[in-house]
Write a structure and sequence with these properties.
two-stranded antiparallel ribbon; 5 helices; mainly alpha; single chain; Fumarate Reductase Cytochrome B subunit
Amino acid sequence: MNARPASFHPYARLLHWSMAILIVAMLFVGVGMASTVSPLRQTLLALHRPLGLALLVLVALRLAVRLRHRPPPLPAALPAWQRHAAGASHGLLYGLMFALPLVGWAMLSAGDYPLTLAPGLTLPPIVPRDAALYALRRRAHTALALLLFGTVLLHLAAALQHAWLRRDGVMASMAPWRRRPGQSG
């Protein structure tokens, strides 16, 4: 059995930080869409839909990278409850990153709104047209987005706790920059 690495695979780091930027952008775009009735809303919708599908593809790639390249171990001194919380929060993040775009696609399908990525490239509906299902999926999409926002904030707080308080190398293992051998985290 191979030893676990000291830091995340470069592809994992690239996907993590790229997706982090896109997810934060998507949360702000979503709030902007929900809070405006101006012509800007159509622009935000046109941006939100393909970015959501891009995130769905990226999370699938990210999961494949994670399964192929094991993440570094958590520090041995980390309390058991924090290990469990880390595992649960990562599971929740992955679940939400898959669920949000799929629920959004189902919402659009139920509302009979075509999901057009580019001129001539429209994805098929994944559920039948149904106004009640549309309303349910819309509420679910909003609730999941709020849950994602809260989970991202907790993830950020945990990362900062590892970086600033524990100084245990966990944050450095996912840092977008490469550590040189012998450099402390």
